[in-house]
């Protein structure tokens, strides 16, 4: 029997590198909904340690490539963050989130011991290779953080591949493409060009023979979406006429400022830079800072703003896929389902539940993704515009091998197979989702107005309250009920009962030092009033501040 070569941790090299990336003793980091996320200037030690952790994860998985994305998504420009991507392009396995938190918080003196112990308890074979692909968004702190990550990789001798300034979904795509290369499940060429080609080719096929698509305005949030969508337009040519706005990636302070998907969702209004640009009924959409969220909207004939958020995207897409499955003769063989969070508009849940199975899970793409995997085709979207569609491996195989019995079945089947190529199934992807929406609109011959009229949103409001410690807020029942601080939930319910159709939920954000308050009511004024009154309760309870951002790290 061949004996296994025992390789030890290169402790001296690690110690030498670690000395360049000390952790400030007063800081505590936690790997949350979307990885580590806080002010960019305090993340140096975290990135160094994440480099080591990513390499160890790769070794643990037999040298499979792990992804690292440096971004703070929709957060303000001074924030930054980092998340890890597992080999199939998915979010990091939950158990390793705790390891990430432990490693990030070890004091400088303890770090090597904590690392040694982790390698032992996680039974990591250090003789295995380690491969990591990493990218970053356009934030000013990104470059320095990439250097810290590279030092982490160098300290442990991992092989790093720099994907440069790119979107979060492209990093997820690359991870899956690299790990499936040469296998039966090959996902695509493992390059940015491969991503553009795969998607644009599917898009062209799907819209071929349809009426010319009218111009679409794309708000890039002054982030990485700008260069990426610009490149994609070269692949799309005439098939999708796009006007790019908010592309100032080099202007300090511009990222996500008065623009982007989060601005549109929370303010329920146009980014100011689009005022005067849009004709009534014209479609526009906003990405967020790392291009994984998408919001559509338009101005109606009376000049009112209408928002087509993640819930409306789910309704549009799910109905389209159900139709195609039926037309392909697969209605009884392919189970389509939808996954939402409690923060989905009640009207969307009603609309969808009347048509197909709907599951509700806590916020965070990892929860939605896993729940969507339970269906043959799982459509998941958060109201904030984060989502995608998953085709199970057996469904993909069925679609590839199914013998259609009529030309109509054959056409529908072809469309489904092209959707498998068009949709980035690793994670929510604003660009891929935007093309998907455009395909459905083209097939249905829907304008934004017709799409919007699938159902009427219940008036709702999302408010954030800055609090000294969001961790005192704990929820249950898919974030529909607060269990801590004790006594707050009954007060919220009591308030909600006073409004016709009133519903309100409170949860700690996973990405910012805030508590999010959602409310819904039959009348707009009541939804607003309920949200602000519940925010007031939170404020009183936690000593929050409705406007101020805590600066405790500065
Ligand atoms: C991340 C997750 C999303 C989630 C969002 C929630 O998004 O990937 O699934 O919806 O956080 O953020 P919060 O808890 O602050 O509302 P992103 O786009 O910020 O990476």
UniProtKB/TrEMBL annotation:
<dbReference type="InterPro" id="IPR049023">
    <property type="entry name" value="AMG1_II"/>
</dbReference>
<dbReference type="InterPro" id="IPR016055">
    <property type="entry name" value="A-D-PHexomutase_a/b/a-I/II/III"/>
</dbReference>
<feature type="domain" description="Alpha-D-phosphohexomutase C-terminal">
    <location>
        <begin position="463"/>
        <end position="535"/>
    </location>
</feature>
<dbReference type="GO" id="GO:0005975">
    <property type="term" value="P:carbohydrate metabolic process"/>
</dbReference>
<feature type="active site" description="Phosphoserine intermediate">
    <location>
        <position position="73"/>
    </location>
</feature>
<keyword id="KW-0597">Phosphoprotein</keyword>
<feature type="domain" description="Phosphoacetylglucosamine mutase AMG1">
    <location>
        <begin position="207"/>
        <end position="294"/>
    </location>
</feature>
<feature type="binding site">
    <location>
        <position position="292"/>
    </location>
    <ligand>
        <name>Mg(2+)</name>
    </ligand>
</feature>
<comment type="pathway">
    <text>Nucleotide-sugar biosynthesis; UDP-N-acetyl-alpha-D-glucosamine biosynthesis; N-acetyl-alpha-D-glucosamine 1-phosphate from alpha-D-glucosamine 6-phosphate (route I): step 2/2.</text>
</comment>
<dbReference type="InterPro" id="IPR005844">
    <property type="entry name" value="A-D-PHexomutase_a/b/a-I"/>
</dbReference>
<dbReference type="InterPro" id="IPR016657">
    <property type="entry name" value="PAGM"/>
</dbReference>
<keyword id="KW-0961">Cell wall biogenesis/degradation</keyword>
<protein>
    <recommendedName>
        <fullName>Phosphoacetylglucosamine mutase</fullName>
        <ecNumber>5.4.2.3</ecNumber>
    </recommendedName>
</protein>
<dbReference type="InterPro" id="IPR036900">
    <property type="entry name" value="A-D-PHexomutase_C_sf"/>
</dbReference>
<feature type="binding site">
    <location>
        <begin position="507"/>
        <end position="511"/>
    </location>
    <ligand>
        <name>substrate</name>
    </ligand>
</feature>
<dbReference type="GO" id="GO:0006048">
    <property type="term" value="P:UDP-N-acetylglucosamine biosynthetic process"/>
</dbReference>
<comment type="function">
    <text>Catalyzes the conversion of GlcNAc-6-P into GlcNAc-1-P during the synthesis of uridine diphosphate/UDP-GlcNAc, which is a biosynthetic precursor of chitin and also supplies the amino sugars for N-linked oligosaccharides of glycoproteins.</text>
</comment>
<dbReference type="InterPro" id="IPR049022">
    <property type="entry name" value="AMG1_III"/>
</dbReference>
<feature type="binding site">
    <location>
        <position position="288"/>
    </location>
    <ligand>
        <name>Mg(2+)</name>
    </ligand>
</feature>
<feature type="binding site" description="via phosphate group">
    <location>
        <position position="73"/>
    </location>
    <ligand>
        <name>Mg(2+)</name>
    </ligand>
</feature>
<dbReference type="Pfam" id="PF02878">
    <property type="entry name" value="PGM_PMM_I"/>
</dbReference>
<feature type="binding site">
    <location>
        <position position="290"/>
    </location>
    <ligand>
        <name>Mg(2+)</name>
    </ligand>
</feature>
<dbReference type="GO" id="GO:0071555">
    <property type="term" value="P:cell wall organization"/>
</dbReference>
<dbReference type="Pfam" id="PF21404">
    <property type="entry name" value="AMG1_III"/>
</dbReference>
<dbReference type="InterPro" id="IPR005843">
    <property type="entry name" value="A-D-PHexomutase_C"/>
</dbReference>
<dbReference type="Pfam" id="PF21405">
    <property type="entry name" value="AMG1_II"/>
</dbReference>
<feature type="binding site">
    <location>
        <position position="516"/>
    </location>
    <ligand>
        <name>substrate</name>
    </ligand>
</feature>
<keyword id="KW-0119">Carbohydrate metabolism</keyword>
<dbReference type="InterPro" id="IPR016066">
    <property type="entry name" value="A-D-PHexomutase_CS"/>
</dbReference>
<feature type="domain" description="Alpha-D-phosphohexomutase alpha/beta/alpha">
    <location>
        <begin position="65"/>
        <end position="105"/>
    </location>
</feature>
<keyword id="KW-0479">Metal-binding</keyword>
<dbReference type="Pfam" id="PF00408">
    <property type="entry name" value="PGM_PMM_IV"/>
</dbReference>
<keyword id="KW-0460">Magnesium</keyword>
<comment type="similarity">
    <text>Belongs to the phosphohexose mutase family.</text>
</comment>
<keyword id="KW-0413">Isomerase</keyword>
<dbReference type="GO" id="GO:0000287">
    <property type="term" value="F:magnesium ion binding"/>
</dbReference>
<feature type="domain" description="Alpha-D-phosphohexomutase alpha/beta/alpha">
    <location>
        <begin position="118"/>
        <end position="182"/>
    </location>
</feature>
<dbReference type="GO" id="GO:0004610">
    <property type="term" value="F:phosphoacetylglucosamine mutase activity"/>
</dbReference>
<feature type="binding site">
    <location>
        <begin position="382"/>
        <end position="384"/>
    </location>
    <ligand>
        <name>substrate</name>
    </ligand>
</feature>
<feature type="domain" description="Phosphoacetylglucosamine mutase AMG1">
    <location>
        <begin position="309"/>
        <end position="446"/>
    </location>
</feature>
């Amino acid at each position: 029997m061949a004996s296994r070569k025992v390789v030890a941790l290169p402790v001296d090299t690690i110690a030498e590198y670690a000395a360049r990336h000390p952790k400030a003793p007063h800081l505590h980091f936690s790997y949350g909904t979307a990885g580590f996320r806080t002010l960019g200037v305090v993340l140096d030690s975290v990135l160094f340690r994440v480099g080591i952790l990513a390499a160890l994860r790769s070794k643990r998985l037999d040298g499979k490539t792990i992804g690292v994305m440096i971004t703070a998504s929709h957060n303000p420009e001074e924030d930054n963050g980092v998340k890890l991507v597992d080999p199939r392009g998915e979010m990091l396995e939950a158990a390793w989130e705790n390891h990430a938190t432990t490693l990030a918080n070890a004091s400088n003196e303890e770090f090597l011991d904590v690392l040694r112990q982790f390698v032992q308890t996680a039974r990591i074979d250090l003789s295995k290779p380690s491969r990591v692909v990493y990218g970053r968004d356009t934030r000013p702190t990104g470059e320095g953080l990439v250097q810290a990550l590279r030092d982490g990789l160098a300290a442990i001798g991992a092989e790093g591949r720099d994907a440069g300034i790119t979107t979060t979904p492209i990093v997820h795509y690359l991870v899956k493409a690299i790990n499936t290369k040469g296998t039966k499940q090959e996902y695509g060429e493992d390059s940015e060009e491969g991503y553009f080609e795969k998607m644009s080719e599917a898009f062209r096929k799907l819209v071929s023979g349809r009426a010319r698509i009218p111009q679409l305005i794309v708000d890039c949030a002054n982030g990485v979406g700008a260069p990426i969508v610009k490149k994609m337009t070269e692949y799309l040519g005439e098939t999708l006429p796009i006007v790019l706005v908010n592309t100032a990636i080099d202007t300090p302070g511009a990222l996500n400022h008065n623009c982007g998907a989060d601005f549109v969702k929370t303010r329920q209004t146009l980014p100011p830079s689009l005022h005067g640009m849009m004709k009534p009924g014209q479609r526009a959409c906003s990405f967020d800072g790392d291009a994984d969220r998408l919001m559509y909207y338009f101005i109606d004939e009376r000049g009112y703003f209408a928002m087509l958020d993640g819930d409306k995207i789910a309704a549009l897409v799910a109905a389209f896929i159900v139709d195609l499955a039926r037309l392909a003769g697969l209605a009884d063989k392919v189970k389509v389902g939808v996954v939402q969070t409690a923060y989905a508009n009640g009207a969307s849940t009603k609309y969808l539940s009347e048509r197909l199975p709907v599951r509700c899970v806590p916020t965070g793409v990892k929860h939605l993704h896993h729940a969507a995997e339970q269906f043959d085709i799982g459509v998941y979207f958060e109201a904030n515009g984060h989502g995608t569609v998953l085709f199970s491996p057996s469904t993909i195989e069925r679609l590839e091998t199914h013998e259609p019995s009529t030309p109509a079945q054959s056409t529908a089947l072809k469309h489904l197979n092209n959707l498998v190529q068009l949709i980035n199934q690793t994670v929510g992807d604003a660009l891929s989702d935007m093309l998907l929406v455009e395909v459905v609109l083209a097939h249905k011959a829907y304008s934004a107005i017709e799409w919007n009229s699938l159902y009427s949103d219940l008036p709702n409001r999302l408010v954030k309250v800055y609090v000294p410690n969001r961790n005192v807020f704990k929820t249950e029942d898919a974030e529909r009920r607060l269990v801590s601080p004790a006594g707050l939930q009954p007060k919220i319910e009591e308030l909600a009962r006073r409004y016709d159709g009133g519903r309100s939920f409170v949860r700690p954000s996973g990405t910012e030092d805030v508590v999010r308050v959602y409310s819904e009511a039959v009348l707009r004024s009541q939804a607003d009033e309920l949200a602000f009154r519940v925010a007031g309760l939170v404020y009183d309870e936690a000593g929050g501040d409705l406007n101020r951002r805590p600066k405790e790290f500065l």
